[in-house]
Automatic annotation (TrEMBL):
Signal peptide: none annotated. InterPro entries: Restrct_endonuc-II-like, Restrct_endonuc_IV_Mrr, tRNA_endonuc-like_dom_sf, Type_IV_Methyl-Rstrct_Enzyme. Residues 37-158 form the Restriction endonuclease type IV Mrr domain. This is Restriction endonuclease type IV Mrr domain-containing protein. Pfam families: Mrr_cat. It comes from Microbulbifer hydrolyticus. SUPFAM superfamilies: Restriction endonuclease-like (SSF52980).
Length: 187
């Protein structure tokens, strides 16, 4: 039975609301599953995800995960071109959801990028970023560009790019093609 707040919803609105609820629950499950894996497995997952997103293009073995410890602040590298001139460096932090990554961590990553002679980086965490971290990343002078991806964004990318996911069901909705029917003479 419909409640007063949902009585005005069309069947399509109800379907969309149900889809959004299922997607939200799935995103939470993705993040919980990621958090159940080791930090090194997360690093490998992130390199796979960025490859799935198109980074590294058609280059064979374009993504690599660095060694598990003493990695100089770089957890992964993606070669952007065949000769390896362009490189995207990755830092990954597997933190509990209630923790946050601060400005100091982003500054450390920018320092690691400088040592690696790179100006492009992606910093991914399973938690979230402080406002100071976000502001610092935005304020970089353009010689270095750092993209921040928090836990829920990571889960959304996993979902949207289908990494570790299976299609459960496809629902195809159709509506009348007005142009098709308008070409016919009315009775």
């Amino acid at each position: 039975m419909l409640t007063e707040s949902t009585e005005h919803l069309t069947p399509l609105d109800t379907l969309n609301a149900a889809f959004d609820a299922i997607r939200t629950e799935t995103l939470e499950n993705i993040l919980d599953t990621i958090l159940s894996k080791s930090p090194y497995e997360l690093e490998k997952l992130v390199v796979k995800l960025l490859g799935r997103m198109g980074y590294g293009g058609q280059i064979k073995d374009s993504g690599q995960v660095t060694q598990a410890s003493n990695d100089g602040g770089i957890d992964g590298i993606i070669k952007e071109d065949v000769l390896g001139f362009g490189r995207l460096h990755i830092q990954v932090k597997r933190y509990a959801r209630e923790n946050s990554v601060g400005r100091e961590d982003i500054q450390g990553f920018v320092g690691a990028l400088a040592v690696a002679q790179s100006n492009k980086g992606v910093f991914i965490t399973t938690s979230r970023f402080t406002s100071g971290a976000k502001e610092y990343a935005r304020s970089l002078n353009g010689s270095t560009h750092v993209v921040l991806i928090d836990g829920m964004e990571l889960a959304r990318y996993m979902y949207d790019y289908g990494l570790g996911m299976q299609v459960e069901q496809v629902i195809e909705l159709k509506k009348l093609d007005a142009d098709f029917w308008d070409e016919m003479k009315d009775a």
